[in-house]
Amino acid sequence: MVAGAQNNTQVRFDQARIATLIAERQPDDPIAILRPWVLRRTALSFLNGFPGQVSYAVKANPASDILHNLVCAGVSTFDVASVAEMHAARQAMPNARLHYHNPVRSASEITQAKALGIASWSVDRMSELDKLGQLTPNTQVAVRLSLKRGGGAYDFGSKFGASPDVATDLLRAVAARGMTPSLTFHPGTQCTDPASWADYIAACAEVAQRAGVRLAALNVGGGFPALPRGGETLRQRLFDTIAAANKAHFPDQPPQLWCEPGRAMVADAMWLLLRVKARGDGVLTLNDGLYGALGEWRDMPVPARQTALNQQGRPVTGKLKPFTIFGPTCDSLDRVPAPWMLPSGIADGDYILISGAGAYSLALVTPFNGYGTREMLNLDSMVEPAGQCRLAG
Prior knowledge:
Helix 8 links the parallel strand 8 and strand 9. The chain is built from 10 helices and 17 strands. About 1% of the residues have low confidence. It has 2 domains: 137 residues, Lyase, Ornithine Decarboxylase, Chain A, domain 1, CATH 2.40.37.10; 229 residues, Alanine racemase (TIM Barrel), CATH 3.20.20. The radius of gyration is 22 Å and the shape is elongated. The termini are close together. Helix 2 packs across helix 3, helix 7 packs across helix 8 and helix 8 packs parallel to helix 9. The protein is an alpha/beta fold.
């Protein structure tokens, strides 16, 4: 069976299991539904396709089942932004390589991170480099560069990143202090423009040349888009662009390439099952909203698809029409900015299955008013022992 047909069969199998779940349990609380085979398939696509090493940005989804399945697939490096994320990664893999690439830290966080063993740190200003103090030999310090340019759904350079001039001075200082120099950048979330990576790599080469420093590593960040089915061609084009730019701009001794996908690694690996609490005139109130697993919908368009299912788990019928979506809390701000197109036949007690919900959903859940998605169902655990490694073919 070819891969595409095999994947389609697995999708239908997942949908059938969810229909059974609805019919048998009639869940009234929201459920995050983990599809481990998708997660492992995506991890393998990065591990086999990216022209360098791969780390997972834990912030996108720190759930233990996510981290466990990534380790099963071969991921052994984690990009961590806090001490809590370090402990989560170590629990999934005690000897995991950790990249602490949140460039601003307290003195206490630095002390705790050193005790946990950090392979690579990131800085974007001299004061943060000074705070690191002495590091163990061979520890990398990645200067974070920002070109203040677009390319993604929003600009990651508005908060972090040094200008080329500041980055040059920082890189020179890193080398002078005996640390292993590298550079890093982030082109912006959901970036589909290969030129963004090519431009950044060219700028990194110029910064390294001006600083008179040979880079040990070049981390091209995250920002890879979460792709619809069949979109792997775009991702491979991004990988090919990165490889070609690294070779072109560092012809003598190209640095070791790293990437740190978050959203692109986990988005498609989780579905979200929500229930309609009430229907009004063109309005649906759901059992979770912006204070829960839909938190990111407030800030940007989320690449997801909504499927309406009735209480027997079958598709709801009716012509598509726009519905205003409210969450369950007493706050009127708990409203999805844009309407969802759903069948006109949707009713109280029906369900909405949301695809592409693996990134920045569970990570953003709050307990406001006592709501928020807390249950995660691992579809594999319905047919095999939980925690078992079964790699996707």
